[in-house]
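Proteins fold reproducibly. Next comes a concrete instance:

***
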Amino acid sequence: MSNLLDLDELQALGKKILSHSKSEWAEVSLGSSHVANLRYAANTVTTSGSYTNTSVDITAVNGKRAGSVSTNDLSDDGLRRAVARAEEIAALAPENEELALPLAVKQAYPKSSAYDARSTDLSWAAEQRSKIAGNAIKEANAHNLKTAGFLESGVHHSVYRNSKGIIAADKHTRTTFSTTMRNAEGRSSGWNKRASHAISLLDAQSAILRASEKCVAWESPKSMDAGVYKAILEPSAAADLLQHFVWGLDAREAEEGRSAFSRPNGTTALGSQVVGEKVHIYSDPSHPLVPSGTYGESGLAVPSTEWVAGGKLMNLSRSRFWAGKSGKDPRPGPTNLIMDGGGMLPEDFLTTLHEGLLITSFWYIRDLDNQTLLKTGLTRDGLYWVEDGKIQYGVSNFRWNESPITVLQNVIDFSKPVVTAPRDGWDGMPMYVPTIYVSGFNFASQSDAV
């Protein structure tokens, strides 16, 4: 990690870059990361590697014209050339009427514990990844299964500066782990995923055992007709849909009539009931279990934000340009996502449910209709019929067509939240999400996927 720059070094580098600028104003975003990974397949470790990189994004602005350049050439000459090139591009660029003025008001950044010092010990982190892979392979061999998986650990430092005096700095660590278990014939599969800012808090063994148990339970799956069924979305599947829900909370799209949260005459759904009244979704960079980034667009501080409370839409994210145009305060999108739940752990909560299709994960989620937030995707690596609190048998996979809004309107109950990560979405967003039990989920057609 010898080439990883700390926050002080990034601060000094940003100051030097801005000193080269001759434009009306300029901004620079700097990031320095060390990322290491381990991959295993067919019950053996296949690859292990790491990289360290520092890069800078420079934007020079004159009037309404802006030019941007990215580089990882940190030499004095390289930085001078990058700044000059950004200014050349700005001179040639057409005017951008949506270019916001630089942030000049000092920000109050939240405190975040997203940086785990133990996880920055590279030798220890590599040993932990090796142990996790070894445990997965041991579990697979014990049950005559084949396993594959991927672990990635990262140390990330970031700094933002502009020529108006705004400085923001952040650092975080993050490890993700996913594993798949399949039987010898490849006809049955189980999967699980975990993530944490601290390797010591990553419950990898539970993920391994859960994937193994699900693989065994899915052997000889039965076929069911497509239709609307009660469904139990495990935390990772719920996380995927919740990301899509929150990504749809954009003020501009809503106020321009282009989203599921638009209402007649340029109004929005703010303050109105949009989902079930049990639903509470918020973000908080200071959350102890899923701490996250503290600044966003142009160094803007990321506040704790209520997105949905009592089923009512409480806030929309708002870019700095759209805030200026609409005369409202800007609001960055979330850097983490938290959904309140009940008091029972997911595995205990399952034993209380009468019936439904238990969904392990989603795959290949795509947009169908932005006006309703309708999505389509596939169930993967474990779909089961649950009756009287127990998995009765595996079920062949489905393609589904459903809106996260409808799913949240159909919530009956949920488990205690757990730290999880989406499978299809962006796993760089820390998430604390429950298993969700819903009264209806639209399984549109059968799928041959395993």
Notes: The CA atoms of residues 45 and 134 lie 8 Å apart. The mean pLDDT is 97.
